[in-house]
Amino acid sequence: MSRLRILTFNIAHGRGLTPIQGLTLGRKLRLNLRKIARLIDELKPDVVALQEIDQNSRWAGNFDHLDYLKAHTGFEYSAFGINNRREGLLNLSYGNAFLSRHPIVDSENIVFGEKTVGEKGFLFVELDIHGRRVPILNLHLNFSSRLNRFRQVEKVMHYVAEKHRHRQNDWHMPPLVCGDMNNPSHRPDATAELMRYFSLHGDYTLQPQGGNTFPAHMPSRALDFVFLPPECNDVSCEIGKTKISDHCPVWVDFTLK
What we know:
The protein has 257 residues and is an alpha+beta fold.
């Protein structure tokens, strides 16, 4: 059996607690990203799922934040899923990403819509963990519209069903899902709908089971979650306290059968 740690963290484009994107100087952005790298080093996760991470955006210093974090954390494997891309003077390129200590043997990014800014999506990867193929989804849902979130999770469910149909014989377990859901689990919203769907594949658990993750300076809402399939045993979960993003990091430890 393998003991694993998965960290999910919306890093808010590296701006820290600055409320307006684009007002953070490049030097400050790099300082914030180094703080995020130190947090990752301290937590020692096997896999990191990141949301709101920039590849080449004018409002975020025009450099690749994933490469920067990779260089400062020593992770060997990574995958980037771009959900927003805009060329020109106000160029943008950002989305979700993974850092992994295990080989990423497959990856695919799905964007929910066609907007050039503010669009959400999910990044799917398959990891080779000691010879076992483990699928993981890194998800970011719409923050302002419950209807849009339901449309987005419907797309997630259709994607997972198709992947499961073609890949289930290769997978060690059903997909682990994590990310910024932008809605709590106790309301009839997208998080509860996803939990209902994934529970059809077995005895999934939703982590954390208590506590809030947003805003980081005074958390009052639970928005960041990890959906764990039944092959994950002896689970523990923690919410970190930090001021290097407007979201708190969430990490889970479990034993993989």
